[in-house]
Structure to design on (862 residues):
């Protein structure tokens, strides 16, 4: 805080000072000489008081990122000395006041990241023509609002403007010709609006402009030749429009370009040879057009290029051998073209490649051994080509798709659980490529080699690929048996071995969510826990039996033959001898158990410890030691029924332990029902339901053992801005689908049906790929079809069906109501409390879907 010689406050500068409270409580009348006000990045609340208009000496106002709400007061137009007004990243609504045009000295105006759209949600704000009066304005940022209407031609009066950002709004109409009057402009961003028509020729008078982004609008016509006049351009983005014609050769004059994006238009002809002039170019995207011809060698002269995307075009010919000169290339996408010839061996020189996508072409020849030199490769897609030969044993990718080729030979050794030698010095590779894992295991792997000519057996060491998520080996010539070790791959979700020559029985340890073993030579009983898979998953195996539709029961297949009778006569005496031996062994163990030093903590006082399908090696002591006896440092969440702890077991596997509150363990009725329900819930197997591995009943503590989810709850992800932005619309839609599938399974495919009773965003967990899993059966109860299932405690406030308040009857419909609330929360990015209240009122205003969508994301394009 600064004062003048007479002790009067002239400057309040307290940014990022963790100040809390309502801005309206600040008595502005006490600061008549205030010139600078900076309270940015604090935890203020309330609206901007109209009294701010009395501070006639103010020249700078910084109130960005302060959680302010309400409208921008029109009194701000009285601040005739104001030069900078920054109200960005708040929750301000309404329109931009017309009075702001009276502030003639204004040089910088930032209103980005608000909700300026009139009276929500009915009306939309517009850019007032009075904005043209701000002749001294140098910086104008109105991005990420809901401004509609057209861009006023008066904006051309802002001759001193250097930066103009109107992106991510709902502006329509055309770009006014007067935009060409802004001769001082260095940056212009209009992307993500609804602006159409041709790009005005006057735009190319702005010879000082360095950054031009008009992407994702409706601009049509051709790219004007005059674009070559903008010789200072370093970034040009015209992607996502309706531009036609060819790429003008005058573009080659822009020798300072670093970023060029012309993707998702209707451009045709060939790639101009002048593209070799862009010596500083690092990003080039020409994808999703109608570009034909060959890939010119001039493209390989761009030594600084890091990102190259030419996918979804009509390119033909071969991949240039000189592609290996692009040493800095991190991503290369040439998919969905008409490329032929072989993959050049020189591509192995692109040592920085993370992504290589060549699928859906007509490439032939073999996969170059030199590709094994690309140590950082994470994604390799060679599917839908005419490649032949074997799969190199040195390939290091995490995601691999080679389907629909003519490959042959044995499955490479890197699927046998032994990563390539190139990984030996990178035991923490997952950290170096920024995957969200805390362990030092390799990231989740996927292997897709379907519809090839692979032979031999499935390696028995494949269980060492503990992060394997997807294994697709269908339509090959594999023989032998299915390895028992497959059951140890805990993360396996899709397992397709159909259309091979496999024999033997189905291992009882298999754990995949999606399974297809059809059209092999398998025999024996279909395991009970796999019977939820559709019958088509097992057809074409004449020797299989079990309680699956279309298959005979195993009892019918077991005819009593003479050989069996003889076997009984022979082995019955041996069985009796063995029984007496076992009985004596049990007596010996019982006598030893009297020694207190040999008593297992998991077996004291009749306590119960049970784990299903978990190698049979997990002990009570391991779990206690992994959490240091439930130390608070391992606690990752707390709920109404208990606390959740993260436990890393000695073999490196990570599980989640839900320790129930002590009051629950003292309820004998609860303990009895808990045992029954836990055993039933352990049979629940669905790809979108968190796996329950087991439970422990102990007089000191009681806990459930669940599958661990890396990204935590949906509730926390939606409330973290960075993670919420990562959760794009496609992923959010998939989450809604996943929860719906899980509830449908619980309600309709389980016998008796299961009602979760507490569907909320806190009980939907996300894995490292942001896939959703329904969790927390701590409040779930088995619901028989004819049961009323009355209860006094069910659900989380804000997700409970209204009728539960007076009927006290829990049904599947209660879960469906909670699902609806969660679906709205996913769309809005926050709990829809106020929206639900307004929807319940018949007199409430009409609400447009686009008005309630999460404002942190751009609106979905379709």
């Amino acid at each position: 805080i600064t004062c003048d010689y007479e002790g009067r406050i002239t400057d309040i500068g307290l940014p990022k000072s963790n100040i809390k409270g309502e801005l309206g409580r600040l008595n502005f009348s006490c600061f008549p000489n205030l010139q600078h006000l900076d309270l940015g990045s604090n935890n203020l609340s309330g609206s901007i008081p109209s009294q701010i208009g009395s501070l006639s000496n103010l020249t700078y106002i910084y109130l960005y990122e302060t959680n302010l709400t309400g409208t921008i007061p029109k009194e701000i137009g009285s601040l005739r000395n104001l030069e900078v007004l920054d109200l960005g990243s708040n929750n301000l609504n309404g329109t931009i006041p017309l009075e702001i045009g009276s502030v003639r000295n204004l040089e910088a105006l930032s209103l980005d990241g608000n909700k300026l759209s009139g009276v929500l949600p009915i009306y939309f704000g517009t850019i007032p023509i009075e904005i043209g009066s701000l002749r001294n304005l140098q910086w104008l940022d109105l991005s990420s609002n809901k401004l509609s209407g057209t861009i006023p031609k008066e904006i051309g009066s802002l001759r001193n403007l250097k930066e103009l950002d109107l992106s991510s709004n709902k502006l329509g109409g055309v770009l006014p010709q007067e935009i060409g009057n802004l001769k001082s402009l260095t940056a212009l961003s209009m992307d993500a609006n609804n602006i159409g028509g041709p790009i005005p020729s006057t735009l190319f008078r702005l010879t000082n402009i360095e950054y031009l982004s008009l992407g994702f609008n409706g601009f049509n016509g051709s790219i004007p030749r005059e674009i070559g006049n903008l010789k200072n351009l370093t970034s040009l983005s015209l992607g996502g429009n309706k531009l036609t014609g060819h790429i003008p050769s005058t573009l080659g004059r822009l020798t300072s370009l670093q970023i060029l994006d012309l993707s998702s238009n209707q451009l045709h002809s060939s790639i101009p040879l002048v593209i070799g002039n862009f010596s500083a170019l690092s990003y080039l995207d020409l994808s999703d057009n109608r570009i034909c011809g060959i890939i010119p060698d001039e493209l390989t002269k761009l030594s600084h290029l890091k990102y190259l995307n030419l996918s979804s075009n009509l390119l033909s010919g071969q991949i240039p051998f000189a592609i290996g000169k692009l040493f800095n290339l991190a991503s290369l996408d040439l998919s969905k073209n008409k490329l032929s010839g072989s993959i050049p061996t020189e591509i192995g020189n692109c040592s920085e490649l993370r992504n290589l996508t060549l699928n859906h072409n007509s490439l032939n020849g073999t996969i170059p051994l030199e590709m094994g030199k690309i140590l950082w490769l994470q994604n390799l897609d060679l599917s839908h080509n005419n490649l032949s030969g074997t799969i190199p044993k040195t390939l290091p990718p995490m995601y691999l798709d080679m389907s629909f080729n003519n490959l042959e030979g044995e499955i490479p050794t890197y699927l046998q659980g032994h990563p390539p030698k190139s990984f030996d010095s990178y035991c923490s590779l997952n950290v170096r490529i920024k995957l969200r894992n805390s362990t030092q295991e390799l990231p989740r792997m996927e292997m897709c080699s379907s519809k090839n000519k692979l032979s031999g057996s499935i390696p028995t060491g494949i269980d060492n690929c503990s992060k394997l998520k997807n294994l697709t080996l269908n339509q090959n010539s594999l023989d032998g048996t299915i390895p028992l070790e497959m059951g140890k791959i805990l993360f396996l979700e899709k397992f397709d071995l159909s259309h091979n020559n496999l024999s033997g029985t189905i291992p009882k340890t298999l754990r995949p969510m999606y399974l297809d073993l059809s059209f092999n030579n398998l025999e024996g009983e279909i395991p009970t826990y796999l019977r939820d898979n559709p019958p088509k998953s097992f057809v074409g195996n004449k020797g299989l039996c079990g309680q699956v539709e279309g298959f005979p029961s195993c009892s019918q297949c077991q005819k009593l033959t003479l050989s069996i009778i003889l076997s009984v006569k022979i082995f019955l005496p041996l069985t009796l001898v063995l029984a007496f031996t076992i009985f004596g062994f049990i007596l010996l163990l019982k006598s030893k158990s009297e020694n207190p030093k040999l008593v297992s903590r998991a077996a004291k006082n009749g306590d119960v410890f049970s784990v299903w399908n978990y190698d049979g090696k997990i002990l009570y002591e391991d779990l206690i030691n992994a959490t240091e006896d439930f130390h608070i440092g391992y606690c990752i969440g707390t709920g109404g029924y208990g606390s959740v702890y993260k436990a890393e077991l000695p073999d490196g596997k990570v599980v989640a332990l839900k320790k129930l509150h002590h009051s629950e363990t003292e309820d004998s009725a609860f303990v009895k029902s808990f045992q029954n329900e836990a055993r039933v819930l352990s049979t629940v197997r669905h790809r979108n339901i968190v796996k329950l591995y087991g439970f422990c009943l102990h007089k000191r503590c009681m806990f459930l053992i669940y599958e661990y989810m890396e990204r935590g709850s949906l509730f926390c992800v939606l409330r973290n801005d960075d993670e919420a932005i990562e959760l794009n619309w496609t992923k959010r839609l998939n989450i809604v689908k996943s929860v719906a599938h899980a509830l449908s399974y619980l309600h309709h495919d389980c016998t008796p049906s299961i009602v979760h009773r507490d569907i909320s965003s806190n009980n939907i967990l996300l894995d490292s790929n942001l896939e959703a899993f329904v969790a927390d059966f701590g409040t779930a109860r088995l619901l028989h079809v004819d049961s009323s299932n009355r209860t006094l405690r069910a659900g989380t406030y804000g997700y409970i069906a209204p009728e539960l308040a007076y009927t006290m009857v829990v049904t599947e419909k209660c879960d469906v109501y909670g699902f609806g609330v969660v679906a709205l929360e996913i769309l809005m990015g926050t709990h829809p409390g106020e929206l639900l209240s307004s929807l319940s009122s018949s007199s409430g205003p009409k609400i447009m879907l686009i008005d309630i969508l999460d404002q942190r994301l751009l609106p979905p394009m379709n």
